[in-house]
Structure prediction request, 389 residues.
Amino acid sequence: MTIVSFFARHRRILVLCAATVALHYAAIDWVGGRLSDQTHRKSELKPSLMTAQLRLALPKRVETAPPPEITPLAQKPSRPKPQPSRPRPAAAPLPLPDPAPLPEPATVAEDVPSLLAGEPPIVAADAQQAGAAQAQTGMPPPAGVQGDKPAEAKPDAAPRPGMRRYKVNLPPSAVFEMAVNRVDPDGTKWTGAATMTWHTDGSHYQASLQAGVSLLITRLNLLTSRSEGEIDDYGIAPVKMMEKRMRRSETATHFNRDAGSISFSASEASFPLLVGAQDRVTVPFQLGGIGRADVNQFGSDIDIQVADDKEATVNRFQLVGEEELDTKNGKVVTWHLTRPAKPGAYSSKLEIWLAPGLNWYPLQIRVTEGNGAVNTQTVSDIKMTESGK
Prediction:
């Protein structure tokens, strides 16, 4: 059988096989094109930082001693108002003493500086006469006779130790948009928005918080806080915090690091400045830096001195556990920290949710006031910024 006769007899089979191969190739090419389009097609969803899920093992709980109590520094005594001087009665004339013998040459030599200054030399006889004059007239003796040295000025005190030192790795700069929800003691609900910023260049920082409530077509700012300072071996080192509340004057809290004290514009009291001290704006970022440096530090209570507009007390933060926080962009794993209310000092309960998968940023902050009002701020968007800008 020749080749020509073979193809003539099996022509239909060959045509069918060729058509099958062509159809398979066309189908594979079509499917591949569709998959390529799906892979390279831009997503309609906006990119967001709030997609990371990082689950870390919770540290083992370690009991810690009670936090130290901080007492205010002694206030400087106020100077009494000068009283009008009354004329003193004339003193009886003193009997003239016998002429004192001339001082020995050695005594005169010792008093050369006094002589050059135009002052008479003081010898033993003069000292006795001065003491007799003081006894009769009540006048103080000359300064040279008293023999008391002037008090030396004490050097400025640095921030005091005494607080536990934590390893701190502060998070990078970012801007946080937050949703605000408030529930009054009578059940009235308010909604609003807040903007929180954190900027650092590694040696200095700036942090701020601006919060308000929504009223129909406008927003009413209720609180504006700003904090600035440096970064040291203990983490954030505030220098000054400014706070302005609606219908109230702006207040300032000063961290006097050279003098080792914390002072306030709204109060005459002052407190000793302890190492690692924070203000209300920087506390969430300091806690985030502690977790970012070593999660095991949350195994024991975190004690931080926190200053507001009138006092500076030690706040104790405790790890409650891991929680999934429901945010605008989905659920995020967080670590829940709480600072219980303390009668006699801060009467509010503070809760902070930190996100390990998002640089340990604070994603939610809640304050439960003593009267039962609850304020909750939840992050809805995070924008990374360049350091220090």
Summary: The two ends are 88 Å apart (CA to CA). Residues 102-156 have pLDDT under 50 and may be disordered.
